[in-house]
Structure formats: C-alpha cells, structure tokens
Amino acid sequence: MLAPQRQQAILELVRRRGGVRVTELVRAFGVSDLTIRRDLAHLAGRGLVAKVRGGATAVTGASLTTDEPGFAVRSVRRDAEKQAIARRAAALVRPGTAVALSAGTTTWTLARHLTGVPGLTVVTNSVRVADVFRLAGRPDQTIVLTGGVRTPSDALVGPVAVAAIRRLNVDLLFLGVHGMTVRAGFTTPNLMEAETGRALVESAGRLVVPADHSKWGMVGISTIAELTEADVLISDAGLPQPARDTLAAHVGELLIADTPALRRRTRGDAITPAPPPEQRM
C-alpha cells in the first residue's frame, strides 16, 4: 500500500470511529510506529485529524474540503471498490445508446468496462476517458469530447464545455462526485467543474452516480445536484448501513456492488491486521 492510500484509509477510520491509536494502526497496516506517526502528522498538518497522545481524533468540520487532488493521486485509491462499482454500472448500458461520462477516476474505470459495448455514442469532458475509448479502436463507437479548460482532476470545464454540452442529449449520465450528503447533495471542490456537471445532468435522461463509500459525508465547496436527482446511486460494501438507509430514502435506486474482501474488512468497523511478513506476496 502506498503512503497516500494508507493515509486515506487511516482518515476514513478516524472519521468513522472518532479516533484511533497508533498501536492498532501499526498492527492493521503492518508498518512501523514511526511510519504511522508520520502519516498522522501529515494528516494533522492538513487539518484533517487532531494528534493526541498515542493516536489521533476526528476534527469537527473536517469533511468540508476545497482540496482537489490530481488524477494520478486519486487513481490509486480504492481500486477494488471502483472496479466493482464499474462492473455494476456497465450492466446498465445497452448497445446503441448515447451515454455521458463526467471526469473522474471512477468514470475512467467505468470507461474500460464500456469499450466492449457495441454502437455507443459517448460524450465526455475527460481527456482520459476519451483516450480509453480511442485506444480501444472500435469503429462502431462515437466519442464526443467537449473541449474546455483543464482542471487538476483532468476535467474539461468552463464556457466552451458548457456550451457544447447544452447542445447535446444523452440517454444516461454517469456522474463522478467528490462527496455526498443529504444537506449538500453531490458536490465537487471545483466551482467550474460543478457548472459543467450541472450542464451534463440537464442533458441526460437518467442520472447514475457511481460513488464509493468514502464519498459519504464528504462535502465539496459546490453542489452539482441534489441527492433526489439521482435515478441510481451505485456504491460498495463499505458503505455503512445508516448511510445506506439514508441514501435509499433520497435517491431513486441504491445499488451496492459486491466487494466481499472489503465487506469482511469493514464489518463492525473492525480493523483487520495485516498478515505477517512471511505471509505476504
């Protein structure tokens, strides 16, 4: 596990449980005490946790963020969950339909599952998503790239992108999001990306939001859409039951992608210790 992945996992545990101890994190991740303390110092330096003697606690209001990590950083986070979500999302797409994929690492993962669907017309504001289809080289698929100004997350945004999207109509939109809460809805840390996202929502017959469990409780600075606007929300087995109940009451349909390893690891918020060094591959 890379340091950013480990730090994200630690942050999620702190937010769920309210606090963690260094000793249990050492056992859970199979790294040294010093490494864990450096991880906690990094998170504390960003204002995401509060360091205390022997561990760290949650920071009130830490879920609100304007931080926009680059694509490369986010692409290695929760890959198993994204793959499971992408497989479930791809099953919703019929041959010969027009679909839109917003920018994001989950939609980028989904794109790789859609290259085998014949006759698709794909609208996207992501160069990376467009590249997935371009490299697949299917002559029966049409790719429409909106153009626009590129953001740190590799989204194309701004008036050029919005103008292009508003002239298009698609059957289905897969919208990548930064966070989701009842109060704020589906959000992003980028104001211009929110405007582009809203244009995509308006262009679509149905809205599908593929979002892993870490997005629940996170709030970006700008709202793209309300929870009630989503026809389908696809998440993973790590989504806590209270969050499932809340989301099911607001979205049209909640689908949980099967991720058995994650389900075992997160049941009861228990931490699964890392295997001893001699058992690791």
What features would you describe in this structure?
With 281 residues, this protein is α/β, with parallel strands linked by helices. The chain folds into 2 domains: 3-62, Arc Repressor Mutant, subunit A, CATH 1.10.10; 71-262, Rossmann fold (3-Layer(aba) Sandwich). It is built from 11 helices and 17 strands. The strands form 5 sheets. It has a 7-stranded parallel beta sheet with strand order 7-6-5-10-13-16-17, sandwiched between helices. The two termini are 12 Å apart.
What's a concise summary of this model?
This protein has 281 residues and is an alpha/beta fold. It contains 11 helices and 17 strands. Helix content is 38%, strand content 22%.
Give a quick set of tags describing it.
single chain; 281 residues; alpha/beta; Arc Repressor Mutant, subunit A; Rossmann fold; 2 domains; 7-stranded parallel sheet; 3-stranded antiparallel sheet; 17 strands; disordered C terminus
